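Supplementary Note 3. Input sequence used for the single-chain structure prediction.
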Amino acid sequence: MAEKKFELYEYKPSKVAALIFVGLFLITTFIHVFQAYKKKALFLIPLIIGGFFEWIGYISRTISSNNPTSLGLYIMQTLLLLLAPALFAASVYMVLGRLITFTRAESLSPIRTNWLTKIFVFGDVLSFLIQSGGGSLMAKASSQNLGKTIVIIGLVLQILFFGVFMVTSAIFHQRLAVNPTTVSRMAPWQKYMFALYAVSALILVRSIFRIAEFAGGRGGALMKSEVYLYIFDAVLMLLVMVILNLIHPGDIIGRNKDVADSMQLSDSTADLGSAPDAGQRRWK
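The predicted structure, written as discrete structure tokens, is reproduced below.
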């Protein structure tokens, strides 16, 4: 019996589905470009690059629907869609560090602020490099199992760092809620913390799905149908970007003039403890 020919995909990629997500990711990404420029939110550059990874990745899948045997297109879409969430995570880590500094609550952080972002971004970069190395190996039948194992290691590492990050965020949140600073009493910082929890949970679910997908192998149900990719990856990552469009961290920790002016809390403003509503109005 002739050996079955190695196929890059276990299904025929859907052109319509890929085109829909090209459009959706293009829209949210360029909204982020505009928002980051307007609010001078440079810490969201990794998120924006991740958005480019997403829509370019789905363009590659669109083209692959007509040319499913192209190794170059397969590698491109695999790597871009696999790695984009790691870039999203880098911005999420930086947002927490800036929120802690903004609220002047460094003493309440379970990890020193000057180390917090460095630790999590280091873990994110390491995860990124491991996943990219494994993803590039998965296109060949001879190295597919090795590549799959390496990708799973990278994803597990990402989940571990994200888990520690969420615990760190929750501890800081609880401490600041109990012992508010002058700044935290006057700014809606909790809204941004809840946004961080939401996007972190979405990235975690997506990473768990990817581990299950690669662990199941080519014969597994998750790799035999691309519907799971769209439900547990495309939709979830789109939600990450849209949530941060709607609750944009640059509104509170950006560097444009209006935000900077709002962040300058004078001594006279600090005396408004008897009239907290006056301070809150500045952020509406």
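The first helix runs from residue 15 to 39. The CA atoms of residues 1 and 238 lie 45 Å apart.
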